[in-house]
Specification:
Helices cover 34% and strands 15% of the residues. By secondary structure, it is of the alpha/beta class. The chain has one domain: TIM Barrel (Alpha-Beta Barrel), CATH 3.20.20. α2 links the parallel β6 and β7. The longest helix is centred in the middle third of the chain and has 14 residues. The protein is globular and about 50 Å long. 40% of the residues are buried. The mean pLDDT is 95. The structure holds NADP nicotinamide-adenine-dinucleotide phosphate. NADP nicotinamide-adenine-dinucleotide phosphate binds next to α10.
Length: 320
């Protein structure tokens, strides 16, 4: 039995719950003088990886205008155009807000142009899900003049829209305001606070997109014995050391039958009804095979998985 697709009210269709995070495909780049990518990747390898993902039934692809200054979007577009099974794909991308848009609480022509930029880089007539990338947590969503967003939906250039939040407070604010139809935030074995929001999200008919489901790749068997060492050219070299240390120690206390904590971590996310899609970042064909094993093994009872981390904190205590 494989995993059931989840219904997306904003799209009016079912979507497979294992998706694909495309940040990892963006190659090396910097933001404010610091590495922000996941290391070099040849474009043909990235396209091959996405073709294999599409072939194994993955539908939801999460990218952003900011991933490698549009490189990830371009590669996604290239992969979709050259695949014979791209018809079912769901394109999710993100654009940030300008300080003046935040101050004026208004999205206008400049916002439209940025969305048109994403459409053109992906080479598509429609973005299924557009997320506003990391807006302030306390945005007064009800006061936002969003005619440009609504116009893009009416024109069929956008399927639906939502928010990729900075912190949990941002998710709660979006949920409270009922802005858009979906929200993306962190969710994994060592950051389980979103669980409490799932019933309310479901009540409101909003979809939840779980990013970082492998805790930036720290939920990996390779770190049971060895300490993580990140290349200086990847963004993880700048992760807070205390958090990495805490995560590794906590991960080592979680038993994972079959020695595959990454797969159990994904099964855990998928064991919630309120979970619409998980978007692990994938860098290798082997990691993709792992997703296929999770899909094929089908749903696992939540209670069975929950027993795995008795005594493990719900989240990193220093992040309130
Ligand atoms: N603000 C935002 O909107 C935002 C922020 C973060 C992420 N995202 C989205 O969420 C996606 C995923 O989140 P993330 O980038 O934080 O990373 P993640 O999914 O938590 O971790 C990805 C890393 O996990 C490792 N991995 C993948 N499959 C594995 C397996 N089967 N076994 C062991 N390790 C495995 C790989 O690490 P190695 O590279 O070491 O092999 C990979 O790079 C991104 O691609 C992006 O689309 C959005």
């Amino acid at each position: 039995m494989s995993l059931n697709p989840r219904y997306w009210k904003g799209l009016g269709r079912q979507v497979a719950p294992i998706g694909f995070g495309c940040w990892q495909l963006a190659g090396n780049y910097e933001v404010k003088g610091k590495p922000h990518g996941w290391g070099a990747m040849e474009p043909q390898d990235a396209v091959r990886l996405m073709h294999a993902a599409l072939d194994q039934g993955i539908q939801f692809f999460d990218t952003a205008a900011g991933y490698g200054a549009g490189r990830s979007e371009e590669l996604l577009g290239k992969a979709l155009r050259s695949s014979t099974v791209a018809g079912e794909a769901v394109i999710c991308t993100k654009v940030g807000l300008l300080p003046e848009e935040i101050n004026a609480l208004a999205l206008g022509t400049a916002f439209r142009q940025r969305v048109e930029g994403s459409l053109s880089r992906i080479g598509t007539e429609r973005i299924d899900v557009l997320l506003l990338h990391g807006p302030p947590d306390d945005m007064p969503w009800k006061d936002l003049d969003k005619w440009a967003l609504d116009e893009l939906v009416q024109e069929g250039k956008l399927g639906t829209y939502g928010i990729s939040a900075v912190s949990l407070a941002g998710v709660e604010n979006v949920l409270h305001a009922g802005f858009g139809t979906c929200v993306e935030w962190v969710f994994h074995l060592l950051e389980r606070r979103p669980e409490k929001l799932f019933p309310r999200l479901q009540e409101r008919g909003m979809n939840f997109i779980a990013r970082s489901p492998l805790s930036r790749g720290l939920l990996s068997e390779r770190y049971r014995l060895e300490a993580p060492q990140f290349r200086p050219d990847e963004f993880r070299s700048n992760l807070p050391r205390d958090w990495v240390q805490w995560s590794i120690e906590a991960m080592r206390r979680i038993p994972a039958p079959g020695n595959n904590i990454a797969e159990h971590a994904l099964r855990y996310c998928l064991s919630f009804e309120g979970m619409s899609v998980v978007i692990p970042g994938v860098r290798t064909p082997k990691q993709l095979e792992s997703l296929e094993r999770v899909r094929r093994s089908g749903p696992v009872a939540h209670g069975q998985l929950k027993a795995m981390f008795q005594g493990i904190p719900v989240h990193y205590p220093a992040w309130t």
